[in-house]
Amino acid sequence: MHDGSGRIVVQGLTKQFGPVAAVQNLSFTVEPGSVTGFLGPNGAGKTTTLRMLLGLVTPTAGHGLINGRPFHQLGNPARVVGAVLEAQGFHPRRSARNHLRVYASAIGVPDQRADQVLALVGLGQAADRKAGGFSLGMKQRLALATALLGDPQVLVLDEPANGLDPEGIAWLRSFLQSFARSGRTVLISSHLLAEVEQTVDQVVIISRGQTMYYGPLANLRDSQQSRVLVQPSDTGALVAALQADGVTALEQLPDGRIAVTGVESKQVADTALKAGVSIYGIQEEKADLEQLFFRLTNGQYTASGPNQYAGPQQPQGSGYYAPPQGYQQPGYQTPPQGYQQPVPPGYQQPPPGYQQPPNPYQQQNPYQQGQGQGGLGGGA
Amino acid sequence: MLGNLIKSEFRKTTTTGLWWGLMIPTVLIALGWALVTGLIGKGLMDALNTSEAEELTTIIGIDPSQWKVSLFGMARSINVATIFPMIFGGLAIANEINRKTITTTFLTAPNRVSALSAKLVVYVLWGAIYGIAIVASVSIGIAITSDPNTLPDASGWLALAGVGVLSSILMTMFGVGVGALLTSVVGTTVVLLLYMLIIENGIQFVLGIQGVPEVIGFLPNGAVNGLTGSVAASLFLSTAGVVPDDLVEVIRAFAGALGAFDWWLSGLIFLAWTAIFFLGGWAATQRKDIT
Description:
The complex is a heterodimer. Chain A is an alpha/beta fold. In chain A, 28% of the residues lie in helices and 22% in strands. Chain A has 2 domains: 8-221, Rossmann fold, CATH 3.40.50.300; 225-286, Alpha-Beta Plaits (2-Layer Sandwich). In chain A, helix 3 (112-120) packs across helix 4 (136-148). In chain B, 50% of the residues are buried.
């Protein structure tokens, strides 16, 4: 039987749907007592991963364990793990209460449990209504009620905020937090970091079926550095002066400004004054978490090496950044559904829909930090 | 554990309207066919009892007064009505996949084998329930319109009722298997109806013309018809007195058992068909990625 730890372990999970690699060698652990966000763009492999964990999809390789066991060895699984999945259906002509009673009997809990969980999710008044007439938000609540029938130790939710109104999202947030505080485990997926940012303690960020970051959200937040955007009268002179001061994290922006990472605006201004460069505008910019998430889940940035803000000095703390080499492996040819094709190293193809500056900054930016750019790059 | 799942599966069938939505036409068709075939049988017997016909039958050497012609109507009516439990079975898994309730079903069962086993038990039970309703409706219908002399005795009725319920159970399981293989509600319904009502009748017609009616007994519909048809035909022959050999095939055709084997062999053949589809559907569902 299972070990009762409430721990979820995903090890080397891989799923191949024909030629499409939905999930590739994914590994992470979810500890009890916390809410873990499972983040990635649509099509990144989140749903497939969760369904493999729940025994609904057979992995091509690797395994997902709950309480140290694969799903099918949990005994009475709904007592251990409850799941709210996308496209989890209800019979449209079965009432909410009857739906829950069907599964209550399968789990072996008394029928009163159906009314308990209905009240818990705020559907007590709708118990006798048929699920076919429910709004999307009510269906999500009914799905959660179903997941809670067996009073499970682990809760897995796939995009549960879909269809919920702001009030419902706030309710779900506090519910999940209190659920986790009681020492239980919550794994919640989303394609929007902002949606779960307030809820989660840990995050697993995946893109194209691979882990990009895995660790506490706080570490991810701390890893961002502010940067200074400065518009000098003489770009070359300011860059040279900053380089001389040992500031090498420089980037030219499409609008002609220079982005300086890792220093305060005061230092940039002082350097400019010493160099005799006028400053027409200066501004400190704190990159938000959503941007960082976007960068982590966007092949363009990760493919070119560690992301530019975090830089090679990252990661700090206990966060784990996946090595980016995965994207460049010659064997990896499968275009993930709907996303940009893998590009050869060195060539930065903009993903569809992304507002790429008109070029040639990514390729020819003389200020870009990193080795092998020659000239101004210096000894970073 | 399996008891919980059986209870759950049974609740699934009773908490939607499908079971009585199909029960109504089942009863109506069974009753209607029995009434009409009873009338036809009565008409036939009335014709045979006219004085001219009696002369003829005496010359041939048969005695229609002992002919239990209602047996044919009963067998035919049972056959037709078991279409509905077959559809009911066909929707068992196809509906769950279509409504995506299969996800929750598998999440609340220890494994798929036990979930599908529970379904098996519940649909055997439903096949029996439909079978009893069919046999009852047919019996009522045939009793209303038939000449009492042509009705089977108690043991004959019991035998026919037994194979009627059995064929209803097997038809339900056959449907479950086909539905699990096709996984589409519309596809399953259309394929089952088309095959059972049109396609196989066409094949049987061709086989009959080609002079190889014995092959019919190996086909699904031919085999399941053989269950009730063979029992009806042998019950008829056991009381009909002298029947010329040439007439035996005609009688079997009347009963819907042309080319069919003995009832138990027909049952085994149909059981094999059911097992093929059921195990195939089971294997497909067992390995299927639920996405």
